[in-house]
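re: that complex we talked abt at group meeting.

here r the seqs, copy pasted straight from the sheet so there may be weird spacing, ignore it
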Amino acid sequence: MIFLNQIVQGVLLGGYYALIACSLSFLFGVMRIVNLAHGSLAVLAAFMLFVLADRAGLSPWLGLIFAVPAMALVGWLLQVAVLERSLRSGLLVPLLSTFGLAIVLDNLLFEQFGADTRSLSPYIGDLSFDSWSLTDDITVGRLDVLMLCVAVALLGGLNLFLARTRLGRAIRATAEDPEVVGLIGINAHRVYAVATAVAMALAAVAGAFLAMRTTFDPYSGGAQLIFAFETVVIGGFGSLWGTLAGGVVLGVAQNLGAFISPHLFLIAGHVVFLAALVARVWLSGRNLRWLRVRAA
Amino acid sequence: MTQITVQRWTPAAIAFALAIAVVLAVLAAGPLIFPAGFTERLTALFVYVILGAMWNALAGYSGLVSVGQQAFFGLGAFVAILLSNAGVPVYAALLLAALAVGVLSLPIGEVMLRLRGGEFAIGMWVLAELAHLLVNLDPLVNGETGTSLIALDAVPAAARRADTYWCALAAMTALLGIVFLLLRGRIGASLQAVRDDEQAAASVGVRVLATKRVVFVLAAAGCALAGALWLATAITFQPRAYFSVQWTAYMIFITLVGGIGTFEGPVLGAVIFFAVETLFGALGVWYLVGLGAAALLFALFAPRGLWGAAQRRYDLRLLPLGFHVVLPTTGRIIR
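got the structure back, here u go
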């Protein structure tokens, strides 16, 4: 029963991972770049909410009304100032520039806020500790359930947005071929800017939940990037529902690892991630060999 | 009919090779003529040059952006401690550790080299995190408590300083020499073809994976040697310090500012980094902000770095790496 509880908690943790990963997955799907500053930008949003709660007494939920548009603006600026330029010059530059940006952001946050760990949990009342008991052994935190629901809602919303709306279709077309869409009257630069703004708005939500469920400090970005990336890779790049599955697999693996020994929480997650990579390399190798046989 | 000659050893290259020989000779006498503090700092500079050159070989020549080279840096130091504790003479342990990590990187490369772009970048970072966590599990290291290179602690400080200096100088010279020979040979041409367009390179018969593998293993062993040498100067081993992503930030700064994809660039970058660290290191956070901002700005606005820009502007070719076509009538040199 304790074992089952670990799995349930792992699934719920997977909700959080899907939440931080969906922005990364979305941006990769549209622009084919991995944003190495993703974690640091989510932490930036977390600090925004913290300042609003701490200095202005604003609840994090109301704070999101300010933080989401603010981060969308940051996304727009990010696209115009950094990504736009780096997209033109090959694969290397977006990686290097976003890594440089992450270092700048982390250290500026450190300069401003110091090494203290912060959390938003004192500002959300009962939600931070309330839980529902399913059986004697299994209790689920209300915040954890909420996170899983938000993750499902955001991923579903993104899918609908991409499938049904005019802008979503424009984004998908641009992802296919940014040059050809110009012929049908789509401005690829504008689409990229909107997509980055959407991705950063999602990162703001991720940052909010990071700050509510646990503590964070200026250097938390790196770990969040790694979790998000592992989630996306396990679930398969470019698939939004895959991201949810990837988050659940990662969360369950970490919790089962911790069930065996507390040291194994992170290690189990990394090992499952590497196993997913090996499996994918092995499978693609088999596909290629199969193709070659057919061609011969 | 005009006769066209192809030149590799330009007069500038010959002069520069002589200059390098003189500089190396002076550096070799280092511990005998420099004050102790300066000798120690120069050892650090050599390690920076190694790190820059290795990262440049990965990113600049094969298009592999790794955010996880600290994995090999840390493992190099860790394996050196293990070997030294097992009774291997301490300086031999440093070299053997690098070779061992090089061997270890073979199976790692088999998986990692099949990933592209950002996937490779963060995949390597995850690997570094995993290596860090696994090293922490060793009872000898005991989590973040760490351990130290006890064998070297027994050696008198002056002798230790000089020996480590000479080891670092030899390692730097040897690794730069290996990179140079690689670039001059068939692999050098293959590498640059792979970096510019992997599919096109494969279509003209370049063995893409085999070429990348050579560089990956070299960079792993080189970073491991750098880590082992850093351990020899610092004596103490705390996993957090060695497996920090900061090392990758340094490597990126050195390579980008110096000139990615040029042989001389990382050497220049390492000297600049060394100077910046010496002058501004005490500023702490702002120093790190500056490093990140410089990497960001160079990546966006000066992707060739200082050396690449100078090379372009003044047609500098200090090392006989490329070929020059000389038209006899005008004496003009075409690259």
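couple things i noticed - The two ends of chain A are 55 Å apart (CA to CA). Confidence is low (pLDDT under 50) at residues 290-296 of chain A.
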